[in-house]
Amino acid sequence: MAYTVRKLLESEQFPKMKLLCGEKGLDLEVKGIRIIEIEDMERYLTGGEILITSLQVYLSCSDREVEQHFEDLVKSDISGFIVKKRKEYDPTGRRLSLLEKHCKKYEIPLVEIPGDLYYWGIIRHVMMQVFDKDTARSVSYTHLRAHETRRHL
To answer: What is the pLDDT of residues 72-90, one digit of tens each?
Structure first.
């Protein structure tokens, strides 16, 4: 049976997760999970991913550029967004509003997490649901190493 955004929310692994919109998309299959680390992340998606972001990557983008990236992301067959609201990365709330607009338009789930919830716990949980145990560990390790490498460059 496929793992879905609904199952992630109902798992109660992360009780502070809150669905902001996109109820009709809750049964979209989650085939992976990625952190949005570059503006044009859509180039690297294979479909079915749930995407995590704090919106930091879009700080230097105009509203028009952000809207185009969100449009491209939702057209990449993603299963949803998880956003960590951080005032310093979206001081006016405009980026989150633009993302919410696209999620509503395409019926993509948009889930909010608090600032004190770490991405890696969510990533590990989703990977353990989507992949077999050995693959999940391997993919999780690869993602962690790649993230750490980019952070130190």
So the answer is: 998 899 999 999 988 888 8
